[in-house]
Structure formats: C-alpha cells, structure tokens
Amino acid sequence: MQTLQINTPGQKSDIFIVDSRQLFQQFCSPHRTVIITDRNLYHLYNSDWADFHVIVIPSGEKSKNLRRVEKIYFQFLSAGVDRDWTILGWGGGVVCDITGFVASTYLRGLDCGFVATSLLAQVDASIGGKNGVNFANAKNLIGSINQPRFVICPQDVLDTLPQKHFINGMAEIIKTAAIGDRHLFSLISEKREAILNRQPEILQEIIYRTIRYKAQIVSRDARENNERRLLNFGHTIGHAIEILTGILHGHAIAIGMYWAAAIANRLAYLSKGEVTELQQLLIAYGLPTTTRINCDRLCDIIYKDKKRQGNTIRFIILKSIGRAEVITLTYPQLKELLYDLRLPN
Questions:
Q1: Which pLDDT band, with edges at 50, 70 and 90, does 71 fall under?
Q2: Which of 126-135, 179-188, 224-233, 299-308 has the lowest mean pLDDT?
C-alpha cells in the first residue's frame, strides 16, 4: 500500500493506493454511510455493500445536473442522514463529481470519501476536492472545492476496466507528465506496452507519481488562485469539445492538449519538435488529437469557461515538456489562434 496526503487550511485528505477495494470498510460505518454509485457499478459491486444505504444513479455525464442532485437530497432526507454520516462515492469521474458536490452542500457539509474505480477517477476526479455539475451547456459550472476525508484507489478494479476507459484515464497521466514531470513523460513513452498490458508494478508507479504531483500542488493552492491552474492544461478547449461531441473526457482533453501545444508553438513558447513529441505519445496510447468541429460553436462554449474573466481567459501553455505556464489571452486572440489552426468551419 502507498499513501499520500493533501493538507489544506482546515482540511486533510488521505489517499491510499492499495491492492483491494475492501479498505473502505475501515472508514465507513454501515448504518451511517450512504454509498452513491452508478447502475453499471452497482451490478458489479453490490455484494460489498450489505447493510449500507445505497443510491444508484444513471451512468454517464448526463447525470451531472441539478435535477439529479435534488433527487439525491430527497433520498438523504428519507434515509435520515445527519451530520454524523459519511457520503461515499463508489465509481468513476461522474460519481465522484456528484458525490463530492452533494456532500459539500447538504447540511452545509458532510464527510465524504471515494472508492475510485476508474483510472481517470484515481488520478483526477477523486483527487483535489473539486466537485461540480454541469449547467446551461457548460462543464462543471456549479460546484465547490471541498476535500474528501479519504480516497481509496484500489488496483484490483483496474483489471476489469474496459480498454477505452483505461485509455481515457491515461490522458490525465500524460497531462501531468507534460506540465510538470519530464521523467514521467519518458517513463510513459518507454513502458507503453507494459502500461497498456496493465502490469501492476509500472501501473502503480505512474499512478503514484501522477497523484503525488497533484497532491503537492493542491496542498499549496487548494482554491486555484495560482499554481493549481496549471492542472487545467488542455481543459479549456477539451471541455468545449467534450460538450459539443459527447466523447469521453480523456479523449477530449487529449485533443485540447495537442491544440494547446500547437497554440504555444504559434506563440513561440514551445518548439515544433515537442509539439510533435506530445502528439505522437497521445496517438501511441490510442488517444485522438483532432476532431471535425465548427470553430464558431467551439468558441461559443469556450466563452462560458469558468476561467474566463471579462474578455480574457487564463490559458495554460507548455514552455517545454515538463514545464507549463499560465498566460492571459483575450477571447478574440484565442478565437483567432483556433482559426489559425485551420479548424473546419
């Protein structure tokens, strides 16, 4: 077992990278815990949850809305949830987002934890305390920042994860390597076959390095006032693509990363060779780097991005593989750069 910790003002989050999901029983009382999961996972794991209150939500991004949140609140009322209860999200990114949000808002805040069952959830959604739901065709527009008390990243669940969802999570690992860990980038490149075959030793190493990097940044900047913004590399464009196309989060972020790298090259921050290096790594893992999408529609969605301030937006660029920076672009500048990439109209 490997452990990490996020320490932020007034909150501490313990993270466990373990062989088995059963560690959750050490943190949860069966009669004072609500487990939130989705329909697919309920059929896989419900035998683990004898005596627990379980709320099952539909699978997929469409569940992340205020109507679903309201239904969960009513289910909390029916179960008699009070401030001594724990809310446990058992699932991937959507489950983690919804669980964190309802736990941080019901009764002004309840303890919560996660059993992260996808690679994406283990290295991203469950870590760092960001919780949110989609609203008005904008990604995670309504949300909170509230650290979970614990996060369990069981490796046994990754054995049965469908390959497309495994690759989906690899996008966030590649993102971490690109912005802040050149050694991790090289490791992912050199050990691709072993990683795609899910060999436990190398898989645990890249998961640990990815979580460690994020945990260090969140501990220093929990509210995303400065350094934490770097974690949004590829997300300004990627979230818009995800909304418009409905493709998986990691696939959309992969496209967003490549386009952000191409923009960095146009602005003379990043060499063409390193743009190609990033693109080739994404392609090697079966991730897309382009899509046919209307640029005007894309820019309309980007304009709703949470990072926009007036007519400017904080945009993450690479200065080299392993080193990123936050710059400020005006909305017209970003739109012109996207058109300059010759996106289809």
A1: very high
A2: 299-308
Annotated catalytic residue within 239, 251, 306, 335: 239
What is the CB-side half-sphere exposure of residue 90 using CA atoms within 13 A? Answer: 30
Annotation says 165 is catalytic: no
Write the single-letter amino acid at 291: T
175 is catalytic: no
Q: Cβ–Cβ contacts within 10 Å for residue 84, how many?
A: 9
As a whole number of angstroms, the distance between CA 145 and CA 127 comes to 11
Domains of the chain as residue ranges with CATH: 2-160 (3.40.50.1970), 163-340 (1.20.1090.10)
Decide if 183 is catalytic.
no
Mean pLDDT of 73-85: 97
Catalytic-residue membership of 224: yes
140: annotated active-site residue:
no
Which of 64, 224, 274, 335 is the catalytic position?
A: 224
> Which of the pair, 160 or 166, is modelled with greater confidence?
166
**Residue 10 pLDDT grade (very low, low, confident, very high; cuts 50, 70, 90):** confident
Q: Does residue 242 have an active-site annotation?
A: no
Q: What are phi and psi of 328, to 5 degrees?
A: -110, 125
62 given a catalytic annotation: no
